[in-house]
DNA sequence: ACAACGGTTCGGAAGGGACCGAAGCGTCGT
DNA sequence: ACGACGCTTCGGTCCCTTCCGAACCGTTGT
């Protein structure tokens, strides 16, 4: 009515259970076909197709036609961030999906959110990087310091994806931890590193990332938490 | 379907234009009566009453009965944060409400978001506090350092509201800046300070906060931006 | 060429939600 | 005590959305 962006159009799209399930399934950043998404939404293919075209039209999803398949994925990291923020709200209000199982607990530990890592371990990594001064808030958002770059490079993280990017890292609200974790190209690089180094592995087709005992030790050693970094007032 | 919180129920509530308008009107953190909210939503009183009771039931709003009035307000800061994150999405996708006027530009400069300050100036304050080391990420979230406490106290900010609070400050995504600004009790204290010190004033009944020229100078002096705090890689 | 396959478009049916008018209920003024 | 006021509840109408089956289109494989 008065001013500001129109929330309702986008919220209404997310508000349908079928579409919400599709969006949740796409939260790992990978692209799924219309048929697969119809499956997760629990609707017929024509219905799913209608939903998908509407979400593409609204800018929530993007399509890539490949042969006779059409791959849908989230339009960007900001979509994933908004979804996580809604999850955080729903979680706090006790709105939970019907079945909660062991998978749910594993998701809280570590999961992929778009292309980066989320969950308790992701928050730890972020906190450690902040405490170390590897990333800090600068004039153009969250920035990686030169010490941080050296540290990550020494660890073996592939930073080539960061070259020439306008925004190197961003923050994303973690629904299970209700804290910030690292997103953006640097977040992607860290998820790749965690998987490539064998610290953790993706569990099946889900968003769950399972850390191996060895990897957990390595993570705690590489990303220590300085308990006395600041006073709580 | 599978795991995680159920987004769709909450998103569906926000997805109705009338309800979205009500929520937007409540973004300044103040409580409005059912009649006033019916006005901003553009619906009759019975309709508004139905909407409001549903949102209370879902935990988005809370009511306070006062005489023959019933005051509705957002249930918490996390609701405001989720709404701002949706605004950020909608803004980026070009979903704008019909009329955009001078008020809109003023909103980008400075506005209240729940009980704290948002907009370009709010982001500046946050960045300055981060660069100065006044607030930093600790083990239990965003924390105020003892130097930060001294600095703010010396400035004249009333920190009495922070005593005994579990979380002293939080981050909130700014829809116009697409950056983080300061929320939580400290954010509230800073908004109070900015208004009490005469740096700025609330414009009518809107969320707009207008800075006086003198206040703007004072803000820039008190919260400098160190352009060379960190390298951009 | 032909059939199988993945996907979209079109049609109509069914369900749910938004909406308002009228009535009811508690509170405030006089 | 009485009416005015703010709000909620109830009942019924109406529209919008969701949904699927059938038909259609382009690609793949044989």
From TrEMBL, chains A, B:
Identification of the protein by name: Transcriptional regulator
Family matches, as PROSITE patterns: HTH_ARSR_2 (PS50987)
Pfam families per the UniProt record, alphabetical: HTH_20
Source organism, top-level taxon: Bacteria
Domain HTH arsR-type: start-end pairs: 1-94
Residues annotated as signal peptide: none
InterPro entries in alphabetical order: ArsR-like_HTH, HTH_ArsR_DNA-bd_dom, HTH_Metal-responsive_Reg, WH-like_DNA-bd_sf, WH_DNA-bd_sf
One GO process term, biological-process aspect: response to lead ion
GO MF, one example: DNA binding
Species of the source: Primorskyibacter flagellatus
């Amino acid at each position: 009515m008065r001013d500001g962006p129109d929330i309702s159009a986008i919220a209404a799209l997310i508000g349908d259970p079928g579409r919400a399930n599709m969006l949740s399934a796409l939260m790992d950043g990978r692209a799924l076909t219309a048929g697969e998404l119809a499956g997760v939404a629990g609707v017929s293919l024509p219905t799913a197709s209608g939903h998908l075209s509407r979400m593409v039209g609204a800018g929530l999803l993007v399509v890539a036609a490949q042969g006779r398949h059409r791959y849908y994925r989230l339009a960007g990291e900001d979509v994933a961030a908004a979804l996580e923020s809604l999850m955080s709200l729903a979680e706090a209000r006790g709105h939970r999906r019907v079945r909660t199982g062991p998978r749910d607990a594993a998701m809280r530990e570590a999961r992929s959110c778009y292309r980066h890592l989320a969950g308790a371990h992701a928050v730890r990594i972020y906190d450690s990087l902040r405490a170390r001064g590897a990333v800090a808030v600068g004039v153009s958002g969250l920035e990686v310091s030169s010490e941080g770059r050296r540290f990550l490079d020494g660890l073996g993280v592939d930073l080539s994806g960061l070259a020439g990017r306008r925004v190197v890292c961003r923050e994303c609200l973690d629904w299970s931890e209700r804290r910030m974790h690292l997103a953006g190209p640097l977040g992607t690089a860290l998820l790749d590193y965690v998987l490539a180094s064998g610290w953790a592995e993706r569990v099946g087709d889900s968003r769950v990332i399972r850390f191996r005992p060895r990897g957990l030790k390595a993570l705690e050693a590489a990303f220590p938490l300085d308990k006395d970094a600041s006073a709580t007032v």
